[in-house]
Amino acid sequence: MARRVFVDTKWNPKKHWNLKKNVCYDPEKDIFIEVDSLTKPKEYDEVYLDSSLFPNMWQQLRKLISNGKKVYYFTRPWKWKEIRKRFREDLKAKTGRVSKSDNSDAYLLWRVYEPSLAKNNTHRYFKLLTIVDVEMRALFMKEAVLYKSLQRIQQINLLNVDIGSNVRMLEKMVEEVRREIVDKASEIIPRFMDIADSLGLNRDDINGLIGLAGLLIYDKFISYKKSINYFGLYKAKGRDGRKNKKYNHKAQRHLLMLTNAILRKNDEKHLPTFKDMKRILRMVIEVKRSVGSLGTGLGYKPWQDPHPYSCRPRRACGA
User: Fold this and answer.
1) Does 232 lie in the same domain as 97?
2) All residues at 6 or more sequence positions from 30 whose CB lies less than 8 Å from its CB, including other chains
3) Among 107, 136, 132, residue whose Cα is nearest residue 250
4) How far is CA 115 from the centre of its chain?
5) Is the pLDDT of residue 9 over 80?
6) Residue 153 pLDDT more than 70?
7) What is the pTM of this model?
8) Residues 142 and 255 grouped into a single domain
9) Which of 42, 193, 62, 194 is nearest to 136 (CA)?
10) Residue 146 pLDDT > 90, yes or no?
11) Residues 144 and 258 in one domain
């Protein structure tokens, strides 16, 4: 039987590396453990993390997965308030408090996992991290930080503030990490350049290739409807609908990059709309369904038509 541990992760910058510890809950022994590194509890087969994947964790995650451990992360952080309320009494009995704490978060991960296992829907709350995820997400995080820094400096430059060569330096750094992402994606994502070619992209379309890599890494769905929700490409209802929309902002940014690149290749000189993004998303999903070996190492199953022999009858005239 697989041994599982549930971990509330902590961000420890290098200058404060020993300030905070990751808190683990072992449901089999019913104990809490504090560890400096995610690789320390060696006796567990499956590791379940909260949704916070920090920059200092990638090397640890790489080592865990390389050692044959299965690593999952919680995918619904917006539900923490609801979860805490649902398991309020259990939480108070276990930790002596219902407010947020390291121990309570680790314990709640297990309380979410337990009923979902009984209902056979753990995939709704926890996603598997693969070695491809770890390699690519680390680079995506680096690119996003550098690009945000570049945007801030460009805004300062508009105010006629002398910032010297900082803009050119950051532009070069962003370009270098983007080329690194494309090289790594070509190396470890199955048939990456074949997929890019089917979408009309070539090796010089750096932004489009980064967008495609992000879609293949972040979006584990092969269902168009689920992907629409995941990317936030729907009209939210109610007065505060737009404010309360739940979707993956990082994934939407990559879809926007891919859409922009394809529109430019087709000489469509307008800003991408939701309609454009949906069209490109459908194209990518069709490719993911058709490439059977793509699911290997990426954490999702190859597409299987649920009704392979069914055929929707054509409506009669006037029906």
Assistant:
1) no
2) none
3) 136
4) 24
5) yes
6) yes
7) 0.81
8) yes
9) 62
10) yes
11) yes
201 near 210, Cβ under 8 Å? no
Query: Tens digits of per-residue pLDDT, 22-45?
Result: 999 999 999 999 998 899 888 999
Model pLDDT, residue 222: 83
CA distances from 141 to 49, 97, 135, 248, 309 (A): 18, 35, 11, 14, 44
Pair (69, 89) in one structural domain: yes
Q: Mention every residue, 6+ apart, whose C-beta is less than 8 A from residue 165.
A: none
The answer to whether the CB of 284 falls within 8 A of the CB of 199 is yes
pLDDT tens-place string over residues 206-236: 999 999 999 999 998 888 888 998 898 987 7
Which residue type is seen at 188?
Answer: I
The CA distance from 180 to 315, in Å, is 52
Long-range CB contacts (within 8 A, 24+) of 287-294: 287/195, 287/198, 287/199, 288/216, 288/222, 289/222, 291/190, 291/191, 291/194, 291/195, 293/190, 293/191, 294/190, 294/191, 294/195, 294/216
